[in-house]
Amino acid sequence: MKMAKLVGERFRERPSDCVIDSHALMVRGGYMKAVGSGIYTQTPPLRRIIRKIEEIIREEMEAIGGQEVLLPVVMPESLWQESGRAASVGSELLRFRDRHGSPHLLGMTHEEAAVQLVREYGSSYLRYPFMVYQIQTKFRDEARPRGGLIRVREFTMKDAYSFHLSPEDLADYYGQCYRAYERIFARVGLPQVIAIAADSGMMGGNVSHEFMLPTPVGEDTLALCPECGYKANMEAAENVVEPFAPVGEGSSGSGKLALVHTPGMHTIHEVCGFLGLREEQSCKAVVYRTEADGRLVILFIRGDLEVNETKLTNLLGGDVRPAVLEADGRLFAGFIGPVGLAEPGEGAAVLFDRSLQGAAGLCCGGNKPDHHYTGLDMERDCSGAEYHDLAKIKEGGICPACGKHTITLSRGIEVGNIFQLGDKYTRAMGMQAADQSGGLSYPLMGCYGIGIGRLAASVCEIHRDEHGPIWPISIAPWQVQLCCVRADDAAARACADELYRELQRLGIEVIYDDRTVSAGVMFSDADLLGVPVRVIVSPRNLQTGCCEIVARDKSVSMKIPVEEAAQAADDLVRRLLAELVWSE
């Protein structure tokens, strides 16, 4: 490949709309071009990276018995009506009607299509277990695309679906996929990816893991315990609280419930400051409405904690949004409490976080403007309350595994996920398998996904310097970049041309820069392409009969006789491939 013919523009300046470094470098390096919000065209360098990632994934999927298929991007909505997700999934699912008026949708995940594919094939126990996978374009109408390929609307994903006749067989295969994912991430240059317990979300199922790349630019929050190794997404992490022990004057559990005038005090911080209490000595109300039917949901939680909306959504079985309370209603924002709460309306839900269980000596809203109660005793004053885990885990919180105050929170990018779906989809869509005695059962499914564009961007986020990406040799767009400095010099041009031919004869992937540009421009563009090995031919080096060979990560810099340069570059490529760390 000649650099002069490479499609895509490279830029010196950082684009103003690029928040994270990998996005900025991939735009500056001409890897992609924005078409719309969260929609990008990929240019040849990125396509080559993506293709290599895909081949690594294919190798690992087929090593555990996967068979590649291609499921449709467009599906009739009736397929999702069979599973029930046509009604339960919200605006992120893009729906449309064809010319005949038939409702269709763009797939953002393909459980339904996978079941429809093998519903008849999987009718006999003789064909189990089996797994199909695809690498396919998907569309999710993401509300807030950001970070280039980190969060997009149109994306390429590897998703796999396995089918089993027993929980033991599903668990065994789930473990095989788990280990295959560890190999995939190590092979692409991210051995630091960790697997954490996760929330299954719209996918369903009881067991799931997300594979997270720890990085400050990640959108997910990870709850980690350095003492015992516990790892979970904050969305799924259990919030453990110690039995409540009232502290301070007026906080005894035997205190009387008293209505106190609190003029203009709406927030927990204001109220507790006014009453001389700590925030954990308060009960606050957070009010939502369900997306499906607008029902009111009033959630009471300890004042120092935040609501985990994923847990709330899972409990309710549907999405929620913060409620806006009418000024002339029966609920008074900032003054809502569980004692004397007026009937909030038909179908409304009143929920209690378990941080309040057994608590006493609390303050809470008085259900009257400018008034709060003190001396709230949950067992005495809210005797019929049922408690649920609906709070976010906190920094320094109690580890659900070892019970120590050791939880640390950090950020991460989700680069893959795996789920044990059970029979959620096969049962809903009527897929059954006959056993040896002729009995019928619903097969159990596993689901395994990797966002390929996001994975490429994540590698760039970790493997880079201020000048550009430093691609691992396994997925680099080319293995060697040949730079002919002063291509207008006849001797330098002749030497570089011959080296180009020799590198190609050795089977090396090489991009050749023979443009008549300054050395600064040439090397700046080379840094943006991030090719692991660089061979430099220049009139100055030729004066001593040498070429210069350097590694993009600056770990290697050497002068090599011209006649040995191609072989030396090949040896360095082979060494870098051999040094790539991944587990067998």
Structural notes for this entry:
The protein has 584 residues and is α+β, with helices and mostly antiparallel strands. It folds into 3 domains: 46-72 and 107-219 and 409-461, Bira Bifunctional Protein, Domain 2 (BirA Bifunctional Protein, domain 2); 258-388, YbaK protein (Alpha-Beta Complex); 471-579, Anticodon-binding domain (Rossmann fold, 3-Layer(aba) Sandwich), CATH 3.40.50.800. Helices cover 26% and strands 27% of the residues. It contains 15 helices and 31 strands. Strands 3, 7, 8, 9, 10, 11, 12, 21 and 24 form a 9-stranded mixed sheet that branches. Helix 2 (44-63) packs antiparallel against helix 6 (167-187), helix 2 packs across helix 11 (452-462) and helix 12 crosses helix 15. The radius of gyration is 30 Å and the shape is globular. It starts with 20 loop residues before the first helix and ends in a 5-residue tail after the last helix. Residues 248-253 have low confidence and may be disordered.
Question: Can you describe this structure in just a few lines?
Answer:
The protein is an alpha+beta fold and 584 residues long. 26% of the residues lie in helices and 27% in strands.
Keywords:
584 residues, alpha+beta, BirA Bifunctional Protein, domain 2, YbaK protein, Rossmann fold, 3 domains, five-stranded mixed beta sheet, globular
